[in-house]
Each structure stands twice: as structure tokens, then as C-alpha cells.
Write a structure and sequence with these properties.
Blueprint (H helix, E strand, L loop, with lengths): L4 H4 L9 E4 L10 E4 L5 H8 L9 E5 L8 H13 L4 E4 L11 H9 L3 E4 L9 H19 L2 H10 L8 H12 L2 E5 L5 E5 L6 H10 L9 E3 L6 E8 L7 E8 L5 H18 L3 H14 L3 H10 L9 E6 L2 H19 L6 E6 L2 E6 L8 H14 L5 E5 L5 H21 L5 E3 H15 L2 H7 L12 H13 L5 H8 L3 H15 L9 H15 L5
Length: 536
Amino acid sequence: MSVTVADLLQLPSLRQARVIAGEGGLMKIVSSISVLESTDPGVLVDEVFPTGEYFGGELVITGFLNMQENVELQYQNMRRLAEGGEAGLILFYVGVYLKAIDPRLIRLADEMDFVLIVMPEGDVTLRYSEVISDVMEAIFRDRTKSGSIVAEILERVSVLPPYQRTIPTMLKMLSDRISASVMLCDSGLHIINMAAWPRSLEPVMKRGVEELEGLPLSGQSSEFPALSDSRLYRFSIVPDRGQSREVLIVKEGIPPAPDSLAQTVDVIRLGVNIWGQEKGAVAVRELIRAIIQDDPIQMRQLARLFHINVADIHEMWILHCPEGQQERFRREGLVLLREYLDHYCDTVVADIYEGYTVAFMDWIEQAADRDQICRELWEQLVKEGFCLTLTRCGSLANTADVREAFLSHHEYLESVRKIWPEKGCYTIQEFRFAARCQDIMQKGEEALKDALLPLEALRNVREDKALLQTLEVYLLDADSSVTRCAQLLFLHKNTVKYRLNRIRERLSYQIDKFPEVFPLYYAVVLLRLTAGEGES
């Protein structure tokens, strides 16, 4: 977790302070604390805080000492701070130097959820340093405890206005978080964006990188001659789409921890995917990545960032088509998929992930049978010329269930297609059944032989191959339909009926009756998996 304004109000130095406006911003994360005073108040607005610039989620201390009588400048500076992403303002010496707080400032703070805090009024003994020490100690203590840079940055970005959700903003947050200069470069190592630490070193950093005779390989580091006692770290990142990027990190003094560097690079990869390309599509892909990788914290932050409600999502569909069709499916199939599901769902999150098309959705309870809808969609996509499988995974309670289902699909898709080659539209339960069959096969010859025993009664008879083939097709491909079985075997229905009766006679039980059919079904599946379709 990260320190919020509300957390800091519990500190000894702020315990007697009052929040007089902007309570909607109490849960904003505070990255640091700074002092706002200047000999020329106008410089603050025009130069220090340019329009649209992100300043860093700081809590700002001021007494408006150089603009006590100028409410307009107070207002302008406060607005610029709020627009720049600062968390709030702590007013000192109200009733001493600043006689009163103008109502305009209170209204502005409420409008922008910019927390306006007043220290005890009329107290000339108050010191900025006490609050600064308390706040910075709380921030450093929290960072040491949590260590999750990815979650922290995503959470901080999620509360910013849309125009500030950019790569430069993210780099500034990272630079402040790890106290290092961070640069994003193209594949030719030309700087695209950067955030220097401290900010005043930006010219030095640019010149230092330009003058380097060579850079370390990705994942390695070297000395950075432009600054004493500093090292430059290089990492290559490959966005989901578009050109590769290079990340350069320059850190003075104590080297950063490897985990801190890894998380920093991961945040930048996220930022490039989300804000550097097709924002909506890539954002969805990152959300899907977080769900499947069982990362609920990152999932919640991304969902919050893009206003997607994942709390009601308990359904995942996985579509797989040959590699040669994936680009066309990205262009055409995804659109058709989303449009189709929009009729039944309030929320649909769908994109291609690791070669599979993955769709997450809630579900309108009054909708028709989901398996039927799944099959209708599959049939429609097949008519559009796509050769694909569609697997429905329902009743997913959490990200762990999602990850288990996705990995099961990845591991057992080939087996499922071998068991039920006629279907093309599956459920996750069928994948779990295939997994159990594979477990039996992996236990060795004796276990496999035991599982195939129900078929022994059909062997060594005159028509054994025909009987085994008919049973296999009847149970696995025809859904126990005589008519469908006859069609698949190119036989007359009466021939199929005769063979099924012979099978019943040999087995001495009904092959459509549960639970007797369970061992027989396993045996037929194992026969197909071990001998190949159509062989006995």
C-alpha cells in the first residue's frame, strides 16, 4: 500500500490540523512534501508550474507569505498545483501572517478534490520542518514495507485526470520513487522521454548519454562518466505492438535493488503499452495479462484506471486459431466477438494474449443458455472462414481460477481436440477430464491396462474392430445419437443399432446408463488417445 493524505493526518505534527476543503482527495497517494514560497509569486505560475505539467503527487506547505494580500495569485497557484497532480496544500500561520482564507480557495479545493489543510490558527511557533520530517519518515517507512512499485504507480496514475495519464507523468513518478534518472529511448538510443533526478540535472543527463562511447548490454550496467559515483543501467522492452524501446536508468550513490529495477522496467513496459500505442486495445491486453497471471492488485488498478468493473466477471472464453489467421482475427474476429457478446453482457474485455483470443465477461442472468450461445458464436466465426476452437470457462471465482483454466487450456488443447475432433466448441470441464486421462497414461502401462479393461469384452470377437469403432464414435463424437453416429460412420441407422445391441450384449449393461458408463467412457477416450482416431 502507499501513504495517503488521510494517513498523514494521523501523524503527531498534523494531528491538530483541520481539513477545511477538498475531502474528496483524502485518499490520494502522497509521494513527497515540498514548500511553496517565492520572492516573485508570479514566477510560480508562469515558470515553476507550467500549464499541463505533472508535478509529482506532493503535499505542499505554504503560508502564502509573499502573496498574503493577493487572493488572485493564491487562487492561481493553488489551481495550478491541483491541475498538476499535487495531493493537497497545508496552510501555516493562518491568523498570524495570512489573516483569513478566502472562500474562493475553499470552493476551488472542493471542486478539484484538492485537500486544503489548516494548521492550528494563530500559532506562531509552528515549524515547517516538523511536518516535513514526519511526512518523509512515513513515506520512506511505507516504501520499505510494501516494495510494490508497480501497484503504487498504477494506483497513483488511476486518480489523475485523463490528460495527465502519460508516459512523461509515469517517468516522473518512477524517478521520484527510486531517486534515479529514468530515460525511455527508441531502438537507436535516442531519448524520447526522460525524468531526471533531481530535475535540474536534465541537461547533464542528455549530454552524458550523447557523449557515451558505448552502452552496456540489456540487463547490464556501466559507469556513467557525466556524474561521479553513478551507474547507468540498460534494459530492452518489447511492447505488444510497435517498435522495441530501450530504458536507461542512472543512479548515484547506493545501487538500486534488482527487484526495484525489474519493477521499474515493468511499469515502463505497461506505460508504453497503454499510453504509447492504441490506448484502448492495449490497455485491455494489459488487464487480461494481469488477470491470467493471477495478479489481483495490478488487475484492480488497471480496471480502475480504465473504468472496467471486474468484480462481476466470472466467465472466460478462449478462442484459438492457426497462427496464419491471427492477424485477420485481430482485425475482424475480435470485432465480431465483442459485438456478439454485447447482446448478452454489460462488460466485455477481449483481446489476443500469447496467441489466444481471450474474452472476459459478466452475464445478463436472463440471457439464453450460455453453451448454446457459445456454439452459435463458434458456428458464425467458422462461416466467416476462421478455423478455430472456442472454449467456455464458467464459474471462475478469482484470478487463481482464471490462471488454472488458462494453463489447463494451453496444456491440454491438443488432447481435447484428439478426443473430440468433431466438436470445435468445448467447456473447461472437458479440459479437466482430458487432464485426468493424461494422468492415467503417465502412471505407466499397468494403470493404462486397468483403465482399458472395460473394452476387453469387445475384443477377440469377429466384429471387434467394428464394434470398438462404433462405440468410440457413438460416445465421443455423436453425443449418444444413433442418427448422428450413422452419419459419421456412413452407415445405415439399423446397422448402428445392431452394433450397439451387440456391444450391450457383450458388456452386459446399458452403455447409456450412469454411473456404469463412466469407466467405459474413460476407456474409449484412452483408446483414442493412445491408438489414434479410428484405430483400435
